[in-house]
Amino acid sequence: MKPQPLPRDFFLAPTERVARALLGTYLVHDTPEGKTVGRIVETEAYLRNDPACHAFRGPTPRNAAMFGPPGHAYVYFIYGMYHCFNVVTQPNGTGEAVLIRALEPVLGWELMENRRLKHRPSRAIAPARLCDGPGKLVIAMAIGRALNHHDLRKSPLTILPADAFQHPGVSAKQIARGPRIGIRQAADLELRFWIDGHPCVSGPRRQATQ
DNA sequence: AAACGGATGGGCT
DNA sequence: GCCCATCCGTTTG
Asked: Does the reported pTM lie above 0.85?
């Protein structure tokens, strides 16, 4: 039987719990160019009463998706040239989400590499560096503003459970946590989660690779 | 190995 | 006008 996308109820759990539960699941994007799949290895939670959260000061045109239905995408533009991809959590109107920060490439490696090289044609990219950051994975998976508000139970962009590719999943003991990256407000909150020691995690805390 | 600055443009005070 | 949920190449120790 074909694996079914994560159901709506998955995203109704407390956001911190959803951020942990997403580790080991698979982000799948079907495009005319081909299919790409990445295993989620790093996430961050953004909460309603959290000054670092885009929804903190209430709804605006930009953050509207965060106040929309759970299990939909929130895609936003940042630093004049990048996008970030989030999954909305909690009931409609709450304003919480999980940022997807890093993927382990699973399928469509060559397509992901070509997309990355188009943005940065100067050098080769090590496999573990292909999707080790929120801006990078969005380029590799070709996730753009058009997918803002997209229902992640439907084609072309879905999230499949950890067992979809015969993987046992991620146990609580394998999950590390720490402060979120790149924010000034609420910088002390430990709302970043990753698979401990995984080579595809972003930042200095990942395991040393070559 | 870590620190730093430039690119680049939308969103909000 | 200032602030970014970033990335990359260069410099520094």
From this structure: yes
Give residue limits of the domains in chain A.
8-170
Nucleotides on strand C lying under 7 Å from protein C-beta: 3-9
* Distance, Å, A115 CA → B4 C1': 28
- A15-49, pLDDT tens digit by residue? 999 999 999 999 999 999 999 999 999 999 999 99
Helix, strand and coil content of chain A, in percent to the nearest 5, comes to: 20, 30, 50
Is domain A8-170 in CATH 3.10.300.10, yes or no? yes
Contact residues for strand C with beta carbon within 7 Å: A 44, 46, 52-55, 66, 74, 78-82, 84, 86, 97, 99, 116, 119-120, 122-123, 129, 133-137, 180-185, 202
Q: Tens of pLDDT along A103-122?
A: 999 999 999 999 999 988 66
pLDDT, position A209: 41
**Segments of chain A scoring below 70 in pLDDT:** 121-122, 205-210
Exposure of A115 in the CB half-sphere (CA atoms within 13 A)? 22
Per this entry, what is the length of chain A?
A: 210
CA A71, CA A7: separation in Å to the nearest integer?
8
Strand partners of residue A178:
A192
Whether A137 contacts A131, CB under 8 Å = yes
Q: Integer distance in angstroms from CA A2 to C1' C4?
A: 41
Chain B nucleotides near the protein (CB, 7 A): 1-2, 7-13
